Amino acid sequence: MNLRTVIELRLSEAMRKAGFAGNPLVQTAARPEFGDYQANGIMALAKQAKRNPRELAQAVIAELDSPDLIDPPEVAGPGFINLRLKDSHLGAALQSSSGIDPVPNRERVVIDYSAPNLAKEMHVGHLRSTIIGDAIARVLTALGYHVIRQNHVGDWGTQFGMLLTHMQDAGANSAQLADLESFYVAAKKRFDEEPQFAERSRQAVVALQSGESAARAAWQQFINVSLSHCQDVYERLGVLLASADVMPESAYNDDLETTLNDLNACGLLTESNGAQCVFLDGFKAKDGNVLPLIVQKSDGGYLYATTDLAAIRYRNRTLHADRVLYFVDARQALHFRQVFAVAEAAGFKPAGMQLEHMPFGAMLGKDGRPFKTRAGGVIKLSGLLDEAEERALEVVSSKNPDFSAEERQQIARTVGIGAVKYSDLSKHRTNDYVFDWDQMLAFDGNTAPYLQYVCARIRSVFRRLDGEVNMRVDLTPTHPAERSLVLQLLRLQEVVEKVATEGLPHYLCAFLYDLATRFSQFYEQCPVLSAHSLDRNRRLAYCRKTLDTMEFGLGLLGIDVPERM
Ligand code: ARG
Question: d(Cα 141, Cα 143) in Å, to the nearest integer?
Fold first, then answer.
């Protein structure tokens, strides 16, 4: 149950009875003295109706019939309504809550994420799309949406010519391909320095694109190795992408000509310098000229945009998507605006289908510049994860020197990977952020280790208890710290729905951090194991609910929790 929505509905009802309609705009109260929730929409509505806002707010309150849910509300300031949930309602609501409720409509949501270029090994530039997309996929699944993951990997294009040629020369053994990054660098060096190699590479592209079987087989071998590298990274990251989710660019090869013909049939194609382009008003360059979307080069080759248009057709006709979310770098914003507009103009996207670019900012080093190795090279994702685990091992070992080496290793893996993911997910998606090892591995503040540690602490309470926690007790809070904890526990649904709509996981992180903080205050102020029976049972039940909610929420972010730490 989304508490905020329930209150909003009751208020709307009261507003109708008071003779006017509109959105009461219920929000979490900014300060405790404003209650738990505050309705902020009355003033604007009063202005429209040319009525006194405080009087109007009073009239709404008079019609509000919710003695079970909220204490008698008050008008505040120029016409806000402060709402405080009844303690008995908090207890009953917590008693009946479990996890989250699915949304009523099972919309089909395609999530386009990760999508590395397979010519190279995954590097830090792929981290954000991979983990943010995965978190949103988990959130939507939990809410009951029909989620379809699409890993739109780049497996086509001219770089494969030089890779295949280099592979041929190297004798095509997989040991060579174990380090794809170096392999790529070596091939590129030869391509730039050896004219003969470059020429053979160009021929290899032609052979590949014309479907010649030896070239296709070699290419497929390379792609398989590269994809298995990706799969290793996904497994380490705990990302749910499977090989069945891979829908590579090459899968659309046969649709590209049809896509072009469809654009032509709609009268959208214009030839410009030999290339086929779509010009749409509304896309103007700085000089005032309309920007083209190029869909076919003068040599007949198709482009990234052409494939994306074909993918939209497929996601509509075959996947029947209601909504498609693209977790792709903010620098591709113009590409997506153009592609979406063209898809709409050409009818590839019907009116009911929503296409949303979910852009994200860059990962920066501590110097505020793009995150690179000291020598200025790209950082491989596998290397980054190695470092995360190593650094976490140091921290974990210093805190728990008595744990066995094996357990410390295991905890370090969970904490290290969790820290990398959480430090990213907890920032507003569209901002750039500074990648900072010390900050993300700290055991205090808004970090994964802190949240994992709070979970471990609750577990240690349960270890000291024999038997199960009895959940069938009155959960009405009797202490302000209990109340604050319970209220937060009941906000999970609201937060998760917001994350699903906006594709912004940091709301969930902020929620969990707030929950952990409230739990710590509760735990400081309210004795649990040493309390008397009624208090003890109720507080143990709060501990249980908190642990379940923390684990569930971290699970939605794709972050595990160690048994102890
Ligand atoms: N492979 C692309 C890149 O590395 C990302 C693909 C994103 N998805 C899409 N449908 N264009 O930039």
Answer: 5
Does the structure show a pLDDT above 90 at 2? no
Give residue for tokens 């590949």: 208
Full-prediction pTM beyond 0.90? yes
Distance 116 CA to ligand 1 centre (A): 7
Give the N- to C-terminal CA distance of the chain in Å, as an integer: 33
Residue 154 CB less than 6 A away from ligand 1: yes
CATH class, 448-556 region: mainly alpha
User: With contact defined as beta carbons under 8 Å apart, do 224 and 118 qualify?
Assistant: no
Q: What's the gap in Å between 234 CA and the centre of ligand 1?
A: 17
- Evaluate whether 3-85 and 448-556 have a shared fold: no
Q: Give yes or no for a contact between 485 and 544, defined as CB atoms under 8 angstroms apart.
A: no
Contacts of 509 (CB under 8 A, 6+ apart): 422, 425, 426, 446, 557
Task: Find out whether the beta carbon of 489 lies less than 6 Å from any atom of ligand 1.
Answer: no
Euclidean distance between CA atoms 447 and 413, whole angstroms: 15
Q: For 3-85, CATH number?
A: 3.30.1360.70
What confidence tens digit (pLDDT) does each residue in 34-69 have? 999 999 999 988 888 888 999 999 999 999 887 888
Cβ count within 10 A of residue 282: 9
Per residue in 101-155, pLDDT tens? Answer: 998 889 999 999 999 999 999 999 999 999 999 999 999 999 999 999 999 999 9
* Residue 113 alpha carbon to ligand 1 centre in Å: 8
The CB of 308 under 6 Å from ligand 1? The reply is yes
Rounded to 10°, the helix 492-502/506-525 angle is 160
Tokens of 287: 């000089």
pLDDT of 429-455, one tens digit each?
Answer: 999 999 999 999 999 999 999 999 999
Band (174; pLDDT cuts 50, 70, 90): low
Domain definitions of the chain by residue range:
3-85, 158-240, 448-556
Angle (CA) 167-173-178 rounded to 5° is: 90
Atom 8 (ligand 1) nearest CA: 152
**Distance (Å) of CA 444 to CA 89, 417, 423, 485:** 33, 17, 13, 19
* Sign of the CA dihedral running 235, 241, 245, 249: negative
What's residue 157's pLDDT?
Answer: 86
